[in-house]
Each structure stands twice: as structure tokens, then as C-alpha cells.
Amino acid sequence: MTEVAAPAIPETRTRPRRPFWHEFVYTRASLFGLCIVGTAVVIALITPALPLPDPTALSTDTYAPPSPTHPFGTDNLGRDLFSSVLWGTRLSLLFGVVVASLSAVLGIILGTLPGYFGGIIDDAFSRFFELFLSIPALVLLIVVVTILGTNLFLIMVIVGLTVWPSTAKIMRAQVLTQKQRDYVMAARAAGARDFWIMSRHIVPNAVQPVIANSTLLIGSAIVLEASLSFLGLGDANVISWGRLLRSAQAYYYNAWWMGVFPGVAITMTVLGFTLLGDAINRILSPRERTLLGLRGR
Q1: Angle between helices 257-284 and 241-248 (to 10 degrees)
Q2: Domain ranges of the chain
Q3: Per-residue model confidence as pLDDT tens for the chain (297 residues)
Q4: What pTM does this model have?
Q5: Sign of the alpha-carbon torsion through 168, 173, 174, 175
Q6: In angstroms, rounded to a whole number, what is the distance separating the alpha carbons of residues 293 and 297?
Q7: Which of 35, 95, 156, 167 has a CA that sits 20 to 30 A from residue 89's CA?
Q8: What is the distance, to the nearest Å, from the Cα of residue 256 to the centroid of all Cα atoms in its chain?
């Protein structure tokens, strides 16, 4: 009896898994955003060690255009704008990170509870979210800051307490999906308590969109702080990009550089965090992770 050879199975080539870091810089936009944010962070860290002029020191060299001595020129009081913009980077990043962190903590807590328990708790929290979202953030901040004062720490707390509903709604939507998964059902069947299930199972698997949203919130917080400072409601004891723009509004024709460089700093920093947030969202998204070959990581 003649043996028939089994047909050869064609060899399938699997796409090699790329390192996570490689996928993070998968597009030029992501790499550009990372470079902007990285540059801003480096500037914020090394500014105190740089031999810069005192940004608050007055001089007779007023309205000096950009030059090797003053790369960004000087303002109407002779203050060095290059030094002011660099010191403003420290404030803006600190403000954005504190606000985004506070918003993330509140959003995770106040989004997990209604999403997990549902019922009356979910309805009450949903109405609470809608109430906050219906009020324009800038208008609310102007009213609160006018009443309570313009201390920098106070403003950061107020802004953080203002922007958290967006994070909470994202977290709630994630929890509603995660609590129906088999691993949660198995944990309940094993007798695990609600707090254990939420803290050890649901939150770690639902927090990825919150991370991406928090990166975007840093840029939004920077704009809010600049807006308050531009309106004269920021802390007068610190140097911020919004205050520089406020000082420049009366001198656009005489000294264009007073408004251009702080404006470019705000625009580029916000753009950087926006691109960075989009990149993080793309990588942490389950569908995108599968397409990029990152499943199981």
C-alpha cells in the first residue's frame, strides 16, 4: 500500500512584537509631542541652575528687541523675557500636573462607585456630573477665585475640583463594562468583597483611558491658568505665561516680542500634551494594542 504524503502546511509568519517604546513613537506626531513635553520638562528642571538674569529685576534697557544679550527681548520695565518665559515653564507644568493628578484621583473614585453599584447611587452621581459639566469652567473659576483669593495653591485646588467630572464620566463608563466581565463574576463567586474587587480587579483594568485623559487635562489646565492670569486673577507673586501676555497687551505695536514668545510657549506646550495624550490613548486602547501587536502586555 502506497503511503500518501500529507500536504505541506504553509509556514505562517507572525508579526514580531515591537517594544512598547517603539510603538509609542509609532507616528511622527507622537514623537513630536514627546519631544515638546520632554523639552518643557528639562527646561523646568534646569532653569534654577542656569545663569539667567533675575526675571523680576528692572533695568533701563526697556523695549529691547531680541538680541544675543536678550534672546526674547525685554519688556516695558526692562525685564528679560527669556528668563521670564523659562521660569513660567516651571509654573505651568507644576500647575498642569497638580490639577490633572487631583482630577484623576477624584475622577477614579467618583466614577468607580456609581459605575459599580449602579441604581440610585449611579443616578445621583450622574446628575451631579451633569450639574458640574453644565457650568462653564472658566466662569466658575472667575467667580470662585474672586471670592476666595488668588493664591496659587488655592487656584490649583479649585481648578482640579472643577475639571474632574470628565475623568469621572470616563471611569464610570469603563467600570460599567468591566464589572460584567467573567473575572469579576468569578471573584464574586469566590466571596471577594466589593472593595477588593474594585481596587484589585476593576480599577487596574479600567484606568487606561483616564491616564490618556489626564495627559490632555494638563494642557487644558495650562490654558485655564493662563486665562486667569491674563484676566488679572492669577497669583501676582509668581511668574506665569498668562501674566506676561497681560503685560504685553498694551505694547503689541511697540514691542511685538512681549506677547509672541509667551504665546508660542503656551501653544507649543499644549500641543505637545495633546499629541502625547493621543499617543497614550492609541497604545492603551485594546483595539489599537491588538493592531500594533501589543496584546497581552
Answers
A1: 150
A2: 92-291
A3: 455 454 444 444 444 455 555 655 567 888 898 899 999 999 999 999 999 998 988 888 889 999 999 999 999 889 999 999 999 999 999 999 999 999 999 999 999 999 888 888 888 888 888 887 777 778 888 888 888 888 888 888 888 888 888 899 899 989 988 888 888 888 888 888 888 888 888 998 888 889 889 999 999 999 999 998 998 888 888 889 999 999 898 888 888 999 999 999 999 999 999 998 888 887 776 554 544 444 444
A4: 0.83
A5: positive
A6: 9
A7: 167
A8: 30
